[in-house]
Task: structure prediction
Amino acid sequence: MKNGSMSRLWLVVLSLALALAVLGGCSKKPPVVTETAPVEQAPVERIAEAPKPEPVAPKGPDYDSLEPSKYGIEDVFFGYDKYELDDAQMGVLNKNARILKDAGVTVMVAGHCDERGTIEYNLALGEKRAKIVRDYLVSLGVSASKVKLTSYGESRPFNAGQTEADWAQNRRAHFERP
Amino acid sequence: MTIRRLYLAAAAFCFLLPVAAMAQGGRTEVSIEHTATAVLKTDVRIGDFRGLGDDREVQETAARLREVLANDLLLSGLFRVGGPGYPDKELPFNWTTEATVERGSDGVLVVNLNLLSWPDRQLVLTKRYKPGPEQVRTTAHHFANEVVRTTVGSEGIALTRVAFSRGRGDRRDIYVVDYDGEGLLRLTANRTLNLCPDWSPDGNRIAFTSYRGGQQGLYFLETATGQVRQVLSMEGLNLGADWSPDGKELLISLSRSGDPEVYRITPDGAIIKRLTVSPAIEISPSWAPNGRELVFTSDSSGTPQLYMIDREGAGKRRVTFEGKYNDSATLSPSGEWLAYAAREDVLTQIVVMRPGGEERRVVTDNSWRNCEDPSWAPDGRHLVFASDKTGASKLYVYDVVENTFRQLTFGNDPDITPGWSH
Result:
């Protein structure tokens, strides 16, 4: 038992020295020894097994595996040929921003359009919609690197119908897993 | 009637003043008259196409040549076609076409195609071909263009093709079809979205937008080999390239700066110049045939409208003022007509007008749905566009002189963003 703990200690000293040599480059002084020597078994073991600090276990749901709608993120809808945000849309995004910041999750904002207008123009319009949403979220403190964007134009309608109500469903910035 | 007699009288000379004027000026050719009587046509008799001998392939080739040639002449819009076996057996014919097909001593088929004046049967044009089994249609197309050149004095479109995007959602591939709807061929198979094909002026390459690299990029497809290479893939949109008339550069819309702007690029993907600067959408650039100006769509006014600028980005002027949605414009090869998609009531329709805005007319009525992306044939008389009038989006060809339509592609998969070869 004693031998075991001593050899384990020796291992720690060695690995720490090695880490210092790698990280620090030149420090060959072993102050590490005096500092680690009196430390009890348990913490020593932990250091020995994981030189890097263990990531904190995630609290709550595993956001990355979920569609954003599952943790309360809502899509934003737009008027015909529009890509500006009104008060109602900003209200939705304010709520989304709080959730995204708390969760620290990365999402994809995808711009969608209704079937009217050309394929090309709708790809541009969808990009504009996704972009204004991202810009607004970033202005609220969401990390820009955590909001990716894309445009599907009119190629992935949520509703295949051809009434104004159907089209309104298809004019949106949709939040999805990246 | 008078004109027809004039054509007849001129047959022996092959040149005629009104004919030459039509071919070069194009004014007479594209006069927009809704009455069929105002459209002057040359009457061509489809005569005897004889297969010499009992050889089945010889007989079939003769029959196929006759059928394809007659159809080419009809589709050109320049002729009335008749003769033995046709509804119009007798017309005041100006010309007749005849052919012989036989198997040569080397086993290869030999085709002689002749154009003669009618009724005096003076030989005006004779061509000899040795078509392989897959080249019979091409042979007829080639001779059809010869007939157009000889009798009307303009360049025919019988050998042209239309490239387009076929598929659903974000899985669409580039296809190509002969101008008459035959010879459908798939050119890409990469399980992503491929769209907006545009032919280089020499026909050797097709530029198109694809997500095959994971994100949107501009690609070239070599038409001879089918080889594809990436030209450009910048962050955001890389959309809707348009070859310049001299083939030395392209227009494209890129959103690398934050929103879509129009750029001139080299065929190697190097940016020559950014032509637009605005926080709005600038998209669908298309060269004027003189290569000095271009037309594009911008929603800087609040709605998508058409604008023209010069090749340096200067001299911007707004072209459309009517309606709240005007997009995907293209100037005819003569520069005299502008075709585009305009929202009428609820859905987009095809509009043709002068580049200055005169003589505007909506060519597709309420029976059409979502008409988009017109592209001119090199004759400046026909244009192809996409419409989902039958449910799925399909391609249609419009004749601006006769105000008639024909369906070019069929099937259940949507066909979009056509580009007519030059």
